[in-house]
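Hello Y.,

Per our agreement to keep a running log of every chain we model this quarter, I'm adding this entry. I've kept the format consistent with earlier entries: sequence first, then predicted structure.
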Amino acid sequence: MFVVTVEFLIHQQHESEFRETVLKQARNSLTLEADCHRFDVSIDAKDGCRVFLYESYTDEAAYQAHRQTPHYHEFSTRVADWVAQKNIKNWQSVYPS
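Predicted structure for the entry above:
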């Protein structure tokens, strides 16, 4: 599995809008992409402006295909001005396989 983690810091005035939009993105990814196996959205317990995504794909090609979907582009465009910081990391899952 190919794993992607994303950490967002959202401008406070867009916290609720971002949360609604990222949950839609998670549902779309899991529903519309056969090779997206997990799309967890977590919110910092003490700071609702800190959001963490954990995504799992069959392989890197599936992740790259995810980045080409209409729902990915809609999400990225919509939230661009709401994001103060974004940190993306890629991982190769070794267990469980």
